[in-house]
């Protein structure tokens, strides 16, 4: 019951901004470093207005930084060919997890990405 009350206390605006913190990461497929800059800008603009946005923005940034590190490692491993498979897997995982996180944020739920290194606490 308490979690239902918490979901209802999150405003529609906070849910929208929380969702944007996650969805803006997909801009990285079009804009260099957009996967980091999108969530960073959303988070910096709205982090002080709502704790839900603050948590979602940090989570999104941590995931995107982690994916960038995994991508760099995979890029290096392309020299021994396994990196190509890893890069494809990372791209698919990033799209799937960002969509799941965006849907959860729109529902007013905090989402914790798997495989994430917590740089920003």
From TrEMBL:
Its main location: membrane. It comes from the Bacteria. Pfam families: MamF_MmsF (PF09685). It is a multi-pass membrane protein. The chain crosses the membrane at residues 25-46, 67-100. Keywords: Membrane, Transmembrane, Transmembrane helix. It comes from Bacillus taeanensis. This is DUF4870 domain-containing protein. It is found in: Membrane. InterPro entries: MamF_MmsF.
């Amino acid at each position: 019951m308490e979690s239902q009350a918490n979901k209802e206390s999150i405003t529609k605006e906070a849910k929208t901004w929380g969702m944007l913190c996650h969805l803006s990461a997909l801009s990285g497929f079009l804009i260099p470093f957009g996967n980091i800059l999108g969530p960073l800008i959303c988070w910096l603009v709205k982090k002080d207005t709502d704790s839900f946005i603050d948590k979602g923005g940090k989570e999104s940034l941590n995931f995107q930084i982690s994916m960038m590190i995994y991508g760099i490692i995979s890029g290096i491993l392309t020299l021994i060919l396994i990196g190509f498979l890893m890069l494809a897997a990372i791209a698919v995982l990033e799209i799937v997890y960002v969509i799941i996180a965006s849907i959860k944020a729109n529902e007013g739920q905090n989402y914790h990405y798997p495989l994430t290194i917590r740089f920003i606490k």
